[in-house]
């Protein structure tokens, strides 16, 4: 394929990506941009050209050693839900925009530390970027026809132009705002799309190689198993190599947190914490898919091409050698995608660090203070733009001068080892509040020195002089100082060896000096905020301990320089409202200091923010003890407030309950009053009768006709009976209602109980000509208080008698078993009950207007008492009008 | 001859009142509740109506209201005779326009003298 066609394809591809990024930036609020899938795919920026080409190279030459690089992240993924969530939360709270900011803020806004972290990242990542460029260049050459062509100057090297295009892309989408903690949706979405493409294209070639060129995985396996070095390619190869595995896994575990591009996509670009939930399983799945075909492509390459030097590009060469140019182009574009995403995100992250932690705090602050806000914003953006271009161009220069002998794999690992120097201060700093800035700086420098001696120096010497003496004999010929076998540890590969020693030294320095040298109060303040982030999120701006004198006006002046008049005004208004402060507050407090530093951090980095704010305030030294005391107090206040709120809620609930209980009592009281009223009224009626009759009999004894006299005496008797019945029923009802009655429960035959009751009515029924039918002959034994049930039946039957017409009346008593209950019913063919009265018939002193006998018969308590008796048996009583005529009363008793 | 309508749902009480007023030369009409009383009042214009309050169907208060609305009965006195003897009940009865409020249990002699005095 011609150079120009290929270059045209690349240009088209880049334009498409540019377009996608542009659309995403325009629709930055859309759910297509803000979801967990895009988030996870952006995390896959982890898979660079190293994954795409390098893994195959390793698999072809040294077997399954490519795997630990992916095992680390797989192990790390489940921990994200705790660890990464904490990091994201802290970063959001402090508007952190890079790992350098994150670490330097943890150690008290230390300017030097921020710069040091930036340098570490540059050392690690710039060569890494150049390797990506190398991969593009080499694959470009493989794919183009004229292999004889060798570029002689920068101007006709296609890689240079590609590098420039990438720099433009990163500049355009990476420096839209001055606040680097803002999200870069365009870049994230384009990275996500690239992650899909690189995976899909790699799977394409995997399937093509395995199933088209070969006869499936078994075919490759069986052919490969005949080769001489098969065993070494499929095993870890012994105990000592096992250490290599272990350390490489640890290394990649750290890298997934510490690599600047990973920090950028996983922390800075994180939109919602809950996206982590899906990422913890989707990301490992992505890595798994990516690695499925690595081994088969490698073996297939070994079997058909067999050239170990070209092993890294088997994925490209296999389809190309078999005449499938189209697939080769896809593979090339997949690899190119991996390169673009890595280069763009890495340079974006690095440029933020370079500007906010290196350039601005060491030289531009004075100029900013003297300048206007618009110009400052331009300055900041330009610093970042220049950084992006410089980083990519330096990487390009590195590639041109150095990378001839380097494999993707070894430079990748070297980058990991360098970045891993941040691990102690990063991970331990999150959980150990004693870790101090001095110890961190010493640790990182010491670790870096070890890396330099064991990895970079031997590599450089060999690259420049071609001599391996240094490696073989060590410094000054001292064997213990051989760079790849320090103190006799000679079984590790150079990167893991360097990793082991550097991290050990780094860790020892960090821990020892942290214990020996105490950090200053500000460090300790931030340490508390990081370690106990959950508590301090509640404290918000109050988490910063600060004492001194500061005027709001001075701070405002500084803010205006970077945010402009309008934004500053708005931000301060918001702040005052949030903390209920008057808008014309004169003196600034710790919260405002913290708030202002945060506002500036996104634009110029935390160290510069601190320096700027400190320059306009008079800060008093606070002792460490005081810091801890104040923090403890604030925490306690928060806890107390929470407790207070809970207690007050409880109290409100209690008051409500009390109110309810009170209302219930009042209601009960009212009911009691009504009951007493009614009782009094009911008692007065017979007494009135007796009183009046007695008076008449006394005064009129002589004139009164004897039949009237007899009637009056009869009336008196009736009233007396009524009175005693009333009193008896009232007492009975009261006893049943208050639960003071003990039921005499034993086993009885309900048939006999009903018969007994009916027998007592025989005489009266006969007199009235009403038939009482009881035809159920089956014995049914149940447990109840017989006297009480007879009382209920008596009430119901006497009611029925009252409601039925003489001569025509018919009352039917029956019972049946119904789902755990014994159901007894008394049915009559009388007048029935007016529907509107049905709900009240069991109320006390309800008396129907429909009864056939005249009044003095009932007490008005019969049904109320019956209801109480049935309820005391845990049963239920009811009434309903029959369809034709009359009414049916029924009750259920629970039955086992 | 004076005419009295006795409205009460307690037959034993009614019986004593009927006996007494007949002995004092009243023409006595008996109703068991308000609606029966109103039926009687369509034909008869009595001198006095004696009303119980708590009765089925139409109670004493309603009956009083209906009597007061009937122009034909503007000279008829209305007396409550009831067991409700709370001050608030009495006030309510008199407010509604009853001419007298007598309570149960009662003395027959006193009832007669009160009624006679009312219609004298």
From TrEMBL, chain A:
<feature type="transmembrane region" description="Helical">
    <location>
        <begin position="280"/>
        <end position="305"/>
    </location>
</feature>
<feature type="transmembrane region" description="Helical">
    <location>
        <begin position="383"/>
        <end position="402"/>
    </location>
</feature>
<dbReference type="GO" id="GO:0000155">
    <property type="term" value="F:phosphorelay sensor kinase activity"/>
</dbReference>
<keyword id="KW-0812">Transmembrane</keyword>
<feature type="transmembrane region" description="Helical">
    <location>
        <begin position="439"/>
        <end position="461"/>
    </location>
</feature>
<feature type="transmembrane region" description="Helical">
    <location>
        <begin position="498"/>
        <end position="517"/>
    </location>
</feature>
<keyword id="KW-0597">Phosphoprotein</keyword>
<dbReference type="InterPro" id="IPR005467">
    <property type="entry name" value="His_kinase_dom"/>
</dbReference>
<dbReference type="InterPro" id="IPR003661">
    <property type="entry name" value="HisK_dim/P_dom"/>
</dbReference>
<protein>
    <recommendedName>
        <fullName>histidine kinase</fullName>
        <ecNumber>2.7.13.3</ecNumber>
    </recommendedName>
</protein>
<feature type="transmembrane region" description="Helical">
    <location>
        <begin position="325"/>
        <end position="350"/>
    </location>
</feature>
<feature type="domain" description="Histidine kinase">
    <location>
        <begin position="678"/>
        <end position="896"/>
    </location>
</feature>
<dbReference type="InterPro" id="IPR001734">
    <property type="entry name" value="Na/solute_symporter"/>
</dbReference>
<feature type="transmembrane region" description="Helical">
    <location>
        <begin position="112"/>
        <end position="131"/>
    </location>
</feature>
<dbReference type="Pfam" id="PF02518">
    <property type="entry name" value="HATPase_c"/>
</dbReference>
<keyword id="KW-0808">Transferase</keyword>
<keyword id="KW-0418">Kinase</keyword>
<feature type="transmembrane region" description="Helical">
    <location>
        <begin position="242"/>
        <end position="259"/>
    </location>
</feature>
<keyword id="KW-0175">Coiled coil</keyword>
<dbReference type="GO" id="GO:0016020">
    <property type="term" value="C:membrane"/>
</dbReference>
<keyword id="KW-0472">Membrane</keyword>
<dbReference type="InterPro" id="IPR003594">
    <property type="entry name" value="HATPase_dom"/>
</dbReference>
UniProtKB/TrEMBL annotation, chain B:
<keyword id="KW-0597">Phosphoprotein</keyword>
<protein>
    <submittedName>
        <fullName>Response regulator</fullName>
    </submittedName>
</protein>
<dbReference type="GO" id="GO:0000160">
    <property type="term" value="P:phosphorelay signal transduction system"/>
</dbReference>
<dbReference type="Pfam" id="PF00072">
    <property type="entry name" value="Response_reg"/>
</dbReference>
<dbReference type="InterPro" id="IPR001789">
    <property type="entry name" value="Sig_transdc_resp-reg_receiver"/>
</dbReference>
<feature type="modified residue" description="4-aspartylphosphate">
    <location>
        <position position="52"/>
    </location>
</feature>
<feature type="domain" description="Response regulatory">
    <location>
        <begin position="3"/>
        <end position="119"/>
    </location>
</feature>
<dbReference type="InterPro" id="IPR050595">
    <property type="entry name" value="Bact_response_regulator"/>
</dbReference>
